[in-house]
Amino acid sequence: MPRITLLLVVAAVSGCGAPPPRTQPEPEPVVMTATAAPIVIAHRGASGYRPEHTLAAYELAIEQGADFIEPDLVPTADGVLVARHENELGGSTDVASRPAFADRRTTKRIDGVEVTGWFSEDFTLAEIRTLRAREPLPELRRDSAAFDGESLVPTFDEVIALAAAHGVGIYPETKHPTYFRVEGRRLDGTPIGIDTSQALVDRLRAAGFTDPRRVFIQSFEIANLLDLSRRILPTAGIELPLVQLIGNADPANARAGDGFSQPYDVVFHARRGDDLGLLYGELDQIAGGLDDATGWAALVEPGPLSWMARNYAAGIGPWKVNLLPRVALDPPRTVDGRAYAARLTGAVHPMLVAARAAGLDVHPYTVRAEDRYLALDADGTPMDARAEVLRLFGLGATGVFIDHPDLGVAAKQAFIKGD
User: Fold this and answer.
1) Is 396 left (phi over 0), alpha (psi -120 to 50) or beta?
2) Can you give the pLDDT of all 419 residues of the chain as single tens digits?
3) What does each C-alpha distance from 200 to 13, 71, 122, 156, 174 come to in angstroms?
4) Can you tell me the distance from the alpha carbon of 297 to that of 294, in angstroms, rounded to the nearest whole number?
5) Extents of the domains making up the chain
6) Backbone phi, then psi, for 282, in 5-degree steps?
7) Pick from 375, 405, 42, 417: which is nearest to 216 by CA?
8) What are phi and psi of 242, to 5 degrees?
């Protein structure tokens, strides 16, 4: 693979306001190099074209040239990991139309947010296998919705086998690990008590799929990644790169308790009175310390990012809206028949330089091709999904999550060629 030089010119920003006026000093360029091409990660498979987290979506992503396929993992009542974006099944399967399961609809509190529906931990694998996957956004993705009812909910073992057969990597995410291991309850009120991080590694090890070049493990929580680094992976005798997903790190728009602006495990342990220094080490010494009000904004400063790199993380997965700040356009601006709801400010969040300087990979999420997810460039030029991926790669991102892998692959090829 050719050596690629990445030129990053990054302006420090606060929130998503306008870029600094030209009278301010220009930021110094930061030049970084990478010895390998960036990676294209098929977000929930080729989820822009097929119902997400199905073997059909993963197979299409592989056909389109994705480097990694991404299964989000939740457990069944009998402890089997299956690929769903959430443990609530109503949004991505036909469970709501099954009279036999009507009495399992309930309301639970997950990561501090009330959710009503049907939950994977209340169904055995055999019961979940009677369900059929469907497109969660049918009005937006009608072509994908045409495949509703054709696919089963796959197990993690099936996803591993598919990746192994085709020589691609997998990028699993443990969903809500604190909920499943400590806090959550089944429909009958009994604790769930499933360590999904341990279960994930057990399945990888059982399948012999442990090449660190072909696996990333990601989570929006910190404690389970630390546990993977300190205990689970060493006990299993394997080393795999861990990626710290970053929720909303914009203090101007962050809201405590929304499930996205804070690492939930920190909130949970702080409110329970646990020893945060014992759990999180020197991370508890960030400005203001860790507590139940700690948001992602405090954790993307150079100090915490360097600590993550030294202690457990190989990379971070930031929200693209934070990484490339934008302002809303109301009403949306129509250009060449497409309606754009936002415009980039021209600034770049300083976490990008801080993470790369700490030696961390940066894999932003999620690039999507539909109008509602696109933005005009700062000068008003329309940006499609391919252009957005090229921008991220050009700034130094080492990978990108995308719902339309073929567009990501096209951008990667253009980037390598310098086009």
Assistant:
1) left
2) 343 444 444 443 333 333 333 333 333 333 333 447 999 999 999 999 999 999 999 999 999 999 999 999 999 999 999 999 999 999 999 999 999 999 999 999 999 999 999 999 999 999 999 999 999 999 999 999 999 999 999 999 999 999 999 999 999 999 999 999 999 999 999 999 999 999 999 999 999 999 999 999 999 999 999 999 999 999 999 999 999 999 999 998 888 889 999 999 999 999 999 999 999 999 988 888 999 999 999 999 999 999 999 999 999 999 999 999 999 999 999 999 999 999 999 999 999 999 999 999 999 999 999 999 999 999 999 999 999 999 999 999 999 999 999 999 999 999 999 97
3) 37, 11, 19, 8, 8
4) 8
5) 29-417
6) -65, -15
7) 42
8) -110, 140
Taking the C-alpha atoms of residue 220 and residue 198, their distance in angstroms, rounded to an integer, is: 16
Nearest to 261 by CA among 186, 207, 319: 319
CA 286, chain centre distance (Å): 24
Distances (CA, A) of 385 to 85, 356, 376, 380: 22, 23, 11, 16
Report whether 74 contacts 398 (CB < 8 A): no
The domain 29-417 is placed in CATH, from the list 3.40.1030.10, 3.20.20.190, 3.40.30.10, 2.60.40.1120, at 3.20.20.190
Coil, strand or helix at 245:
strand
Give residue 266's identity as a one-letter amino acid code: V
Cis preceding linkage at 234, omega within 30: no
**How far is residue 217's CA from residue 371's CA, in Å, rounded to a whole number?**
30
Long-range Cβ pairs for the range 92-95 (8 Å, 24+): 92/51, 92/52, 92/53, 92/133, 92/134, 92/136, 93/131, 93/132, 93/133, 93/134, 93/153, 94/131, 94/132, 94/134, 94/148, 94/149, 95/131
Residue 29, classified by CB atoms within 10 Å of its CB into exposed (0-12), middle (13-18) or buried (19+), is exposed
Which tokens in the block code for residue 154?
Answer: 């796959």
Torsion angle in degrees (nearest 10) through CA of 143, 148, 153, 154: -40
The secondary structure of 70-119 as a DSSP string is --EEEE-TTS-EEE-SSSB-TTTBSGGG-GGGGGG-EEEEETTEEEEE-B
Minimal CA–CA distance to 320: which of 402, 383, 197?
Answer: 402
CA dist 186 to 75, 86, 107, 143, 175, Å? 12, 15, 11, 36, 16
